[in-house]
Design a protein that fits this description.
heterodimer, B: 431 residues, 6-stranded mixed beta sheet, 19 helices, globular
Chain lengths: 302, 431
């Protein structure tokens, strides 16, 4: 604590005897969190050890770890797992630079900046399901407006978007990026506003170019902000389901199916509650592990 | 067999049949279960919306207080099994679509058989069981027992754009061969018009693929309930389905779901379209359709084994765990009477499961052109519940067979895809 240049409140170190009132006061909240987070997780774990159907002729049967063993041989699961990482990588690679870029633009003073910022968050406030359907209509290779617009600029054979097995994932990532890059931008705008101005003034005096100021000042100082944005997007992307479900249902075939979508289908559509729980636990472990890695990465930066 | 349907009631019912036949309809005691509250769990559907509006009349005429719990279909599929299993007796009646839940629900013994009630004095003499199309009743007849009353019927049709066909001098195709020729002749990729469109998205495409399977003499399952997907009929049908859609379908056929395929036909971007007859409403709607006066229908195309549509139908059923099965039957009986079925068809525009509706002047006047013919001509030869294999694990099975359809549409080896589907479905059924 001592070496941190902290806010004025934290800067008043008055070390007294161990005071437990803080812990005691947070105990009710802690209990509430444990009961709403801990219980479902334990229950999920218990379900994942059973063969369990909601339809009436079979009682839940304890099967140990066989649901997890089965996952390793399930081609659809393995494919969905790899695809989920592909979604996440593409998502992060597009969201972060774009978000930071938009934030840098919005950081500049120009007329209409307030309106631009308001418009910026529109995709984010609309419901993903509704926006997914709108995009399905816009991307329709026969009737969609995207086809028309591409035609105007001379592209007569537009891609098939969601029906093309090779570009269905990037297309979905693009729609996801359209929806969530603004959030990254908002976080970065806040980060930029909080940066000290002195180093930039000094750099100007020293004659640093805009590129140099970005490379040696903005980027390093924004790193912890970007890590927070990356962490939020990482968790969302690993759990991606809504727009995929609405726009392709995981198709063509299973070629755009994410882990979370397969998890949903297995548990609630195919009625394999135990197997679905096992997938959910694996997904939980992956999200948790990735998040912890990012938190560790963030620590030295701060 | 349900708890309240004891041997004694069945015997009593048998003994009273002659009396029931003698008694006139006016003598039937509709108030026998006056004051009985009933709980029904149903899905959002035009018919259940209509039924909800009839509840005051139902109570006035029978004294039964029916509570309709209307859920979205997905929710019903989760809540209903859970309730039937964990709280027997909590639900008296429910809405069922046998092609989807029939195999699972009958294996779990959740349906009360209806024929003992229908043949008893609990059924009004003028209810007229014989008025239902036998093959529509077959939808709700599982393992030889009638388990629900179909309230409407859904067959498929081949829709075509009259103007587009006559411009090229093409007669409405009635066979697989003429459909293929017509589709290729009408296909115009440069003009952004497909010759023929139907579903290509794997899971959804089972429904529209089924008539092609039946046209080649195929079926989903054999008599033992084992999949029959590796045989010649399935492979030939899959070959045909992928050939016609790859050569004359829209470029994005792989992504075609019902919600993306019908707009192509509606906006004159496809000359022909195959799906449920119910889509006619979208094509006749001047606010969204360009083909209001150009749309027409013929039965699904005939192959070597003839023309066979699928036929599916929702309907109310009695929960085997209900302690009020007789009162529940009264409520279902009242809602499915001749008079009310006609009223329901007029209100919902859904084709009925009762023959008498199709000859009623009001309905003949109100029915969209062609619907009566297309239903009546196809129902006798249609395959009840043929929309997918009648198995316990419908969604998972649909996904597995859908993979074969997607593989075929991608131009992969059809025989290999069929064999893989056979293997997968067998594994799913065997659990």
């Amino acid at each position: 604590m001592a070496d941190v240049v902290a806010s004025p409140i934290e800067a008043l170190p008055q070390r007294r005897r161990r005071d437990w009132s803080g812990e005691l006061l947070s105990l009710p909240a802690l209990l509430a969190i444990l009961s709403v987070m801990g219980f479902p997780l334990l229950y999920l774990g218990w379900m994942s050890l059973h063969r369990w159907s909601m339809v009436g002729f079979e009682a839940p049967r304890f099967v140990g770890l066989s649901n997890f063993a089965q996952l390793a041989h399930d081609e659809r699961f393995v494919a969905a797992l790899g695809r989920t990482f592909w979604f996440t990588a593409l998502g992060l690679a597009s969201n972060l630079p774009l978000g930071l870029g938009i934030a840098l633009l919005m950081h500049e003073r120009f007329p209409g900046r307030g309106i631009c910022r308001a418009i910026l968050i529109l995709p984010m406030v609309a419901t993903p399901a509704a926006m997914g359907l709108v995009w399905v209509i816009m991307l329709d290779p026969t009737l969609g407006i995207v086809r028309y617009l591409l035609g105007v600029i001379g592209i007569s054979q537009p891609p098939l978007w969601l029906a093309d097995p090779d570009i269905v994932v990037p297309t979905l990532v693009a729609v996801d990026a359209w929806m969530w890059t603004p959030m990254v931008a908002l976080i970065c705008i806040a980060g930029l506003a909080a940066l000290p101005t002195e180093p930039f003034e000094a750099a100007l005096v020293d004659g640093a170019s805009a590129l140099q100021r970005f490379r040696y000042l903005t980027l390093p100082m924004m790193l912890s902000t970007l890590t927070v944005a990356a962490m939020l997007r990482l968790m969302d992307l690993l759990k991606l389901i809504d727009i995929v479900y609405v726009m392709t249902g995981g198709g063509p075939g299973h070629l755009s199916e994410t882990l979370n979508l397969y998890n949903y289908l297995a548990a609630l559509s195919y009625d394999k509650i135990g197997y679905g729980s096992a997938i959910a636990l694996v997904l939980f472990a992956i999200v948790m592990a990735c998040t912890l890695v990012l938190i560790r990465l963030r620590r030295p930066a701060s | 067999m349900g708890r309240s349907l004891t041997r004694r009631t069945v015997l009593a019912a048998g003994a009273s049949v002659p009396i029931a036949q003698l008694a006139s309809a006016a003598d039937f005691d509709w108030k026998r279960f006056k004051g009985t509250p009933l709980r029904f769990m149903v899905s959002v559907h035009p018919w259940t919306e209509w039924a909800q509006k009839q509840l005051p009349a139902l109570e006035a005429e029978t004294g039964i207080k029916m509570n309709l719990e209307i859920l979205y279909e997905d929710q019903l599929r989760q809540k209903l099994p859970l309730t039937l299993r964990s709280d027997p007796g909590a639900v008296d009646g429910f809405f069922t679509l046998p092609s989807w839940d029939g195999a699972a629900f009958s294996r779990a013994h959740w349906y009360a058989p209806l024929e003992p009630l229908i043949s008893s004095d609990l059924t009004a003499p003028d209810w007229d069981f014989a008025d239902f199309f036998p093959n529509i009743l077959n939808i709700h007849r599982l393992n030889g027992q009638l388990l629900g009353i179909p309230i409407s019927t859904e067959v498929q049709a081949l829709f075509y754009n009259k103007a587009m066909l006559s411009a090229k001098g093409i007669a409405p195709p009635t066979t697989l061969d003429t459909l293929m020729v017509a589709a290729k002749a009408l296909n115009d990729p440069g003009g952004n018009v497909a010759g023929f469109v139907t579903r290509g998205d794997g899971v959804q495409a089972l429904y529209t693929f089924a008539p092609f399977l039946f046209a080649y003499g195929g079926r989903w399952l054999d008599d033992q309930g084992k999949p029959e997907l590796a045989g010649a009929p399935f492979i030939n049908a899959l070959k045909y389905y992928s050939d016609i859609l790859r050569s004359a379908g829209p470029p994005n056929i792989l992504g075609m779901q019902w919600k993306t395929s019908y707009p192509l036909f509606q906006q004159e971007r496809a000359a022909m379209f195959a799906d449920a007859v119910n889509f006619l409403a979208y094509f006749r709607d001047p606010s969204q359709s360009k083909i209001v006066d150009k749309v027409a229908m013929v039965p699904v195309p005939a192959g070597p084994a003839g023309s066979h549509s699928t036929v599916i139908a929702w309907g109310p059923a009695i929960a085997a765990s209900s302690k009020k099965q007789q009162a529940t039957w009264y409520a279902i009986q009242w809602l499915t009477s001749k008079r009310n079925m006609l009223a329901a068809s007029l209100a919902t525009t859904l084709p009925s499961s009762r023959k008498s509706v199709y000859t009623a002047d009001d309905y003949v006047k109100a029915a969209p052109a062609g619907v009566i013919d297309i239903v009546q001509s196809q129902v006798p030869n249609a395959v009840p519940n043929g929309a997918n294999p009648l198995v316990v694990q419908v969604p998972e099975t649909r996904a597995a067979i859908g993979q074969a359809i997607v593989a075929a549409l991608r131009g992969e080896d059809v025989t290999k895809a069929a064999n893989e589907a056979q293997k997968q479905v067998l594994a799913i059924i065997n659990g």
